[in-house]
Amino acid sequence: MNALTLGDLVDTLVAARRAGGFRYDRQARVLAQFAEHCRREGYADGSIIQEAVEGFLYGRHLKASTIRREEIILRDLAEHARQFGWPAWAPPMLTRVKTRHRPPPYVFSDEEICRLFRAIDTQPLSEMSNRALVDPVLFRVLYATGLRLSEALNLQLRGFDPARATLEVRDSKNRENRIVPITRRLADTLAGYIAAAHPHPEPAHRLFHTGDPSTPADKSTIYNRLRRYLADADIPHFAPGGPHIHSLRHGFAVQNLRRWAADGTDLVVMLPYLSAYMGHADLRGTQYYLQLTADAYPDVAEMAQARFGYVIPNPAAREGAEQ
Question: Is residue 128 domain-resident?
C-alpha cells in the first residue's frame, strides 16, 4: 500500500474530488506544487511530515488569505493520505485572515428593470455590431432564467428545444449539465432571434455571438454593454454595491420567491426546486436569496420568519440584542 508515491496520492485525490462534481483546478495546482516541493527538498514517499508542510506553507512569504486556502488543501491531502496508510501531519489552520466588508448584492426594483430593458430595446442599429439583435434576447434570458453569464454565453443551438421550451446548460460552475425549462413566450422570442442571427445554423454554433457563431460573445464585452445600458437607464452603477451582471441572477431568484410568497406557496417546498433550477451545489446558496428577499420586500419577511426562522433572524430581535 505504501508503494504509492506522493504524486500518485495527489492524482487519486484530484480524481476523487472531480468525480464528486468539484472542479478542483486551483487545489490540483497547489497539490502539484507541494509534490514538487517535497521532491525537490528530498522528502521520502510514505509519509507527509510537519517539516515538509510548514516549509511549503510558511516559507514563501504568501498573503495570509493564500496561506489559509492552502492549509485547507493540505489538510484534505493529509486526510486522504491516512486512508492509504501514510502517517500525515495536517496543518492546524491557525492563519488569521482579515475579512473585508462587502456590501449586500444589488437587487433591481421593478421600475429599474423596466427602465433597463427600455434602454436595451431602444438602442440604435449599427452596421459595426449585432448588439441590437443579440442584447434584447440575451439579457431577457439572463433575467428570466437566472443563468450565470458564462452559462448563457456557452449555450449552443443544439441546446435549445423549441418544442419542449427548454435550454440545456452544459459544464456549468459545478461541472454539471442541467435542463432549464423556460416560458413559451421566451421560447418564441428565442426562435425568432435564431432565425435572424443564425442564417446558416449549425448545432454547435453558440446561441449568442458577436459575429462569428462558432465563438461565444466575450464576457467583458457584455459587461461593458451593461454599464452603458445602466447609464442610459439612469441607474448608478459605480458606487460600492451597485448593480452588475450577476444582479440579474439575483433578481430572478428574488422575484420567484416574492411571487411564491404572495401566492401563499410553501417556500420550504419550493427552495429545492429553485436550487436545482439555478444550478446550486446545495441549498445554502438558495437560502442566501431568501435573506435578500426578506430584506428587500418586507411583505415576504413574515412568511420567511415563520418557515425559516433558523435561517433569517428576526430584525426586531437583532435590534434588541444590539441595544
Answer: yes
Q: Is the pTM of this model over 0.85?
A: no
Instruction: List, for residues 35-69, the tens digit of each pLDDT value.
Output: 999 999 999 999 999 999 999 988 777 888 888 88
Average the pLDDT over 274-301 and give the result. Answer: 69
CATH classification of the domain holding 184: 1.10.443.10
Residue 317: predicted pLDDT: 41
How distant, in Å, are the alpha carbons of 26, 65, 104, 105 from that of 98? 21, 8, 18, 21
Quote the DSSP letter at residue 206.
B
Q: Give the whole-angstrom CA distance, residue 313 versus residue 316.
A: 9
Is residue 124 domain-shared with residue 226, that is, in the same domain?
yes
Residues 79-96 have pLDDT tens digits of 999 999 999 999 987 667
Task: Note down the domain range covering 62.
Answer: 6-83
Last residue of a domain, one of 173, 201, 232: 232
Contact 24, 18 (CB under 8 A): yes
Residues 169 and 257 in one domain: no
The region of weakest confidence among 143-152, 263-272, 276-285 is 276-285
Residue pointed to by grid coordinates 443563468: 147
Residues 249, 191: Cα–Cα separation, whole Å: 23
The answer to whether residues 120 and 199 belong to one domain is: yes
Edge-first strand order for the sheet with 160-161 is: 160-161, 166-169, 178-181
For 24-38, the three-class secondary structure string (H helix, E strand, C coil) is CHHHHHHHHHHHHHH
What pLDDT is attached to residue 261? Answer: 80
- Cα three-residue angle 282-175-244, rounded to 5 degrees: 75
Q: pLDDT, tens digit, for every residue of 4-33?
A: 899 999 999 999 998 887 888 999 999 999
Separation CA 19–CA 65 (nearest Å): 27
CA distance to 35, 58, 61, 68, per residue, from 52 (Å) = 10, 10, 16, 17
**CA 70 to CA 67: how far, in whole Å?**
5
